[in-house]
Amino acid sequence: MIAMDLEGAREMPDDGRPMKISRLCGALGAEVRGVDLARLDEAASAAIRDAFHEHLVLVFPDQDLAAGAQVAFTELFGAVEPHPLRTRRTVDGFPAVLIIENRKGRPGARNDYWHSDISHAERPPAVTVLHAIKVTEGRGDTMFCNMYRAYDALSEDQREALRGRRALHSGMATYTRSLEHNDARAIDRAEVKPPRAHPVVCTHPVTHRPMLFVNPHFTTRMEDMTEDESRPLLDSLYAAATRPENVYRHRWRVGDVVMWDNRCAMHYAVMDYTEDMARQLHRTTAAGAAPR
Ligand code: OGA
Ligand code: MN
Question: Distance (Å, rounded) from C-alpha 188 to C-alpha 27?
Answer without folding.
Answer: 36
